[in-house]
Design a protein that fits this description.
3-stranded antiparallel β-sheet, two-stranded antiparallel sheet, 68% helix, globular
Amino acid sequence: MTVTPDAAFGADFLPVLWVAAVLLLASASVTACVPRLSFASPGLSTAGSVMALALGGALLMAGASLTASGGQVLGLVPFAVRYDGLSGAFLLAFGASAAAASLSVVGARPRSTAEGAAYPLFLASILLVLGASNAFSFLLAWESMALLSAFLVVGLRPTRAVVSAGNVYLALTHVATAAILVAFAILAGAAGGQLDFAAWHAAAPGLSEATRNIALVLVCVGFATKAGAMPFHVWLPRAHPVAPSHVSAVMSGVMIKTGIYGLIRIVIDVVGGAPDGLGLLILAIGAISAVLGVLYALMQHDLKRLLAFHSIENIGIILIGVGGSVLLAAHGATELAALALAAALFHSINHAIFKTLLFLGAGAVVHATGLRDLNHLGGLGRKMPATMLAFTIGAAAISGLPPLNGFASEWLTFQGLFGIAGSGALEPAARFAGVAVIGALALTAALAVACFVKATGVTFLGLPRSAAAAAAHETTRPAVAAMGLLAAACIALGIAAGPIVTTLTVVARSALHTAATPERVAAVTATPRSGDVATYAALAVGLLLALTTAGLALFMRSRTRARRVDTWTCGIAPRPAFQYTATSYAKPIQLFFRRILVAEREILVEYHPGTAFPSSIRYRSHITMLLEERILGPAHGLSLRGANFARKLQGGAIQLYIAYSVIAVMLLLLWARWT
């Protein structure tokens, strides 16, 4: 094993990396070798994740990087890592999400010994992905992450629906890996067969335009599929809801971010940027994912499936920042490019925090009621006050409300888009795209608020809509503690947005290979054009909102005397059926966007025998997924027909194989003659 720190103090971080890795491996070993002690595994996973969080923070604060390598398999190095500032930003997201998810199941036994051992190995594979510095090490960690997460989704005793979700996930994740593998082969060929990312960066300027564009498109397809961006998203809303809640939290909070990390690492850092067309394509994918993701989330009544679609929405917001950075960097607007990339990094961290919180909240609801259908929940706030408070903070953060962290990173993303719209260095079409994406992001923010009013209100307020909801209870203390820490982080990251963005701007400049010393950004800073800077003073806004809320509460209390009475329902005792359901709440939005949210309805009427009077009426409605039915469905059918044709070609007849050989030789002779 060799260690080469890139800075004088880089070696000081090596023990932190080893401790994190050893704790995660020990967690898996304890569960696999000593099943009686499997209850201790989540504690070890929590400690290992906290060490990864500390490593990320140390790398960012010190501006250092750490390189280590070791081992050999068939002449290749399976363990070659380089953790730098970009890795540190994603290590923060990984450490916070994984630590909270692991803490939430402390004291609980896993569904099986195999699944209990697979979870910390899954975390260790993500840790290696975020530091891998050559293609072999990266792909080894990438495939380990994919297979372990698929096993955690499916489990040992899956239902047919779970098996279907796992198959879709495995199929698409291997399509992504195939695209990445071909792109890596192209880049390695340009670097004389070397697999190190640093060698690829040195050889990137010598790539022809066509070769470079093919490699970049393949990289984007591969990593966008893992990130769950549209139209490569179909695995995400299937896999996340059926996984255990703490696994769903890590998959949504961190695993899909490895796609964002890979995109930034290869496209921006290694290759050194992309042409305008690719930047516009990433912007378009981001805008479509954000808008359609939140629209489909609004139509969902399964709480975990709703959160899964919101992951697609937030991946879209992050891709808007990445696409804007690529587009601006291609035209030499490095200040604005660094700003847009810093926005993407900040939102990646923020999304890991509040999405983990929301999935743990959903897990607490499932633990208390056994239900995920919003139309069967309600009134849980009285039975689960801690969960309701934490979930509400997470909902406000993901909705982009100040002074929480979601608002800070979305505000910064808006500033990057304003830079695109007003930049004189860009073509008019690119500036128009910036304006269009501003509108898409604003629409996304508004719809996110509506969606989480529905999710929070229908789940926790009103009367219970089922016996299971009426008998709910608060979740375990470790889960409450995990949600409390994440809720506090949502507030803290929002208030400390200025210093955080300052650090992330430095990281963005390093990834963009900008040599100029960055100006210190004391707040979430906007486009520095014409000397104007728009700022967001998070602490001042937070204090103003707190004082305003407290003042209104005191004023209302002094003016009125509160009385608690039953809701007036025309003399009839209040019933759950009188309340808004998740379906009725979303209906006006579904009607407004009916061209996109195409509904399919099924009405079953049963009549009293021999009469025209109905005895029961059953109504069922669901939203058609246009991308799946119009694009992915036909593509899937075409691939099946191609596979069937290929199977016929390999019929096992020796005469057929001889004919293939003769035809191939004749074609080669003709080609040789013509050339």
